[in-house]
Specification:
Elements: H1 2-10, H2 12-39, H3 49-59, H4 61-92, H5 96-118, H6 123-152, E1 159-167, H7 170-190, E2 193-201, E3 207-215
Antiparallel strand pairs: 1-3, 2-3
Length: 217
């Protein structure tokens, strides 16, 4: 419980931003729903999809472009937030469980809103917007990875890379160490390092864990 509290305190800014974006999603969807309910009344339901889309674009171009832009903006910001959260979690070596649940939560929020907007006659336009948003974020990810990946993955021999404190018993520290090594050991071995742990007790009678890298020769 204490570990979870520390985790959510550390990443509370990401969750706050996600709440703000969720409000943006909901607001955009409510306003779009009102517009869509009014405009769809005049669309010939028997016409082909292309004709229906052309009718919407022709008579409501300004509104359609506005909602497409807002959807693109919110989607892109949401994906960038997930990307930043993922990179930060990897750099901080967060355990898999907490990171996995958070990523699933963020993706579910995007998925629900995307499905709602795609369930309209102008879904091809929203689909193009979402694809473009994914492309933009992917390009940013590739550029960021290319520029900074090498800097973050070079370690000295016996370099201290992480300290986790606040364990009340040695058993808790050992359990955390086992989970941490299970998740990260293979990743470091692929980079040419071996993870070594050291469990100690501080002056406050609490246990803490130190993790070091050893170069595999």
């Amino acid at each position: 419980m204490k570990d979870k509290k520390k985790y959510y305190e550390k990443y509370r800014n990401y969750y706050f931003c996600e709440i703000v974006l969720l409000v943006g999603w909901i607001t955009n969807f409510i306003l779009f729903s009102r517009f869509y309910k009014e405009s769809i009344f005049y669309v010939d339901k028997q016409a082909k999809l292309v004709i229906q889309i052309l009718f919407m674009v022709n008579y409501y171009l300004e509104d359609v472009l506005l909602y497409l832009f807002v959807s693109f903006l919110v989607m892109t910001l949401n994906l960038l937030l997930i990307l930043m959260f993922y990179i930060k979690s990897k750099q901080s070596m967060v355990r898999q469980k907490e990171m996995k649940y958070s990523m699933i939560l963020f993706l579910i929020i995007i998925g629900i809103n995307a499905i709602a907007l795609l369930n309209t006659i102008i879904w091809p336009l929203f689909l193009l917007v979402f694809i473009f948003s994914l492309t933009v974020v992917y390009i940013i990810y590739v550029i960021t990875k290319y520029l900074y990946e090498g800097k973050d993955e070079l370690y000295e021999d016996n370099e201290l890379i992480k300290i986790e404190v606040g364990f009340q018993t040695k058993e808790e520290a050992e359990k955390y160490t086992e989970e941490f090594l299970t998740y990260w050991a293979d990743d470091f071995e692929r980079k040419g390092y071996r993870l070594v742990d050291s469990i100690k007790k501080d002056p406050k009678k609490e246990w803490y864990v130190e993790f070091f890298t050893q170069i595999i020769k």
